[in-house]
Amino acid sequence: MTPVFKVISDMSWFQVRRIAIAGTLLGVALLGLAASSVVSEDAGSPYPGMPGIPAIGARIAKYMDVRESAKGPDIDPGKGYRLQNLGNGLYMITDNAYQSMFLAYKTGVVVVDAPPTYAVHIPQAIAAITDKPITHLIYSHSHADHIGGAKSLGGNPVIIAQEETKRLLARAKDPNRPLPTVTFRDQYMLKVGGQVLVLSYHGNAHEPGNIFIQAPAQKTLMVVDLICPGWMPWRRLSLAQDIAGYFDQVEEIKRLPFDILVSGHVARSGTKADVEIQSNFMNDLKVAAAKALSTTLLGKGMDPRDMANPWAVFDNFTDRVMVQCVNALTPKWSTKLAGFDALIWDQCYAMEQSLRGD
Ligand SMILES: [Zn+2]
Ligand SMILES: [Zn+2]
Predict the structure, then answer these.
(1) pTM above 0.90, yes or no
(2) Contact, 96 vs 75, CB < 8 A?
(3) pLDDT one-digit tens code per residue, 100-116
(4) Which one of the ligands is nearest to 143 CA?
(5) How far is the centre of ligand 1, averaged over its atoms, from the C-alpha of 226 (Å)?
(6) Nearest ligand to residue 140 Cα
């Protein structure tokens, strides 16, 4: 914990306490009730050992600086995108927030994902490399922020996706996300003009239908919304719908052969080392949440009148588990992963819920 955090946290809790006291007085004035029956004197005061990083809902006056290792090469503002040559006709295209790929072969181009933030630029980025048409479009998964720019590509490409993605897109009925024309269940090998992409499905983690896309000749793996190179995972373990499945898939990614990871987000491509770091963080998170769960007592320090209210007992219990979890992870990880202070509470909540349910 840095002194800056300590000051911020003390200030915000002081303010919360003041608001709570004001609320109490208002309650007394309006309802004529005794203060103690409206709100406890301890309302808004911090739990013992409250972390310096403010909890969800409390303002962080100044977030921690983004580490250099999390940044990527600059984007040309006149272009709105950056191309990264991955070799052998494969390119990553990014606006330094989203990432997608295209693969040029003898007579055409395969596009993987079309994030709406820059999809309008994809045809022009391709035109700088080849005059061949887009023949195939692969969806990594169904989410609109990764494929909602499909219409900007023009033409009538073959659209390939896992069958769960088709099911979700049929439900969404979104004109900007046309339905796949080719689907598969476990694996699909796309061979075009001497180029190969291997698509494989490993079950639910982020969402059903989210696939791994391997380009063996280019030693590249694209997996979207699982790994955040240099950063904390996005909110609640990258919004994993199945957190146990998410842990399994990160392990699978570690075992695959690749040098470059296209992760769908952040400003730079990733490496095996980035996957290793995220995996270590996730394991520390799991250990910290498990330890906090096993050492926290239900109802400790609560107003006895609330003990018959299970929602209140668990709110208080979960709060104290979070305090322990955040404190356990801060010394090691706050200096290793960008965005730690923005999302660590969120990650602890997600992990605690998963450990109690999965
Ligand atoms: Zn997604
Ligand atoms: Zn995403």
Answers:
(1) no
(2) yes
(3) 999 999 999 999 999 99
(4) 1
(5) 9
(6) 1
Quickly count: other Cβ atoms within 10 Å of residue 68's Cβ.
Answer: 8
Q: Which ligand has the shortest distance to the CA of 265?
A: 2
Contact (CB, 8 A) for 174 and 147: no
pLDDT band at 27 (very low <50, low <70, confident <90, very high): very low
Ligand 2 mean position to 142 CA, how many Å?
Answer: 10
Beta-ladder partners of 192: 195
Task: State the alpha helices, DSSP H only, in the chain.
Answer: 3-31, 35-38, 122-127, 144-147, 163-172, 235-239, 243-255, 272-295, 310-333, 340-357
Identify residue 135 by its one-letter amino acid code: T
Q: Which amino acid is at 123?
A: P
Tokens 């030693």 found at: 219
Token code pair at residue 114: 């079309």
Which amino acid is it at 47? Y
Placement of tokens 């800056």 in the chain? 4
What is the spatial distance between Cα 350 and Cα 266, in angstroms, rounded to a whole number?
21
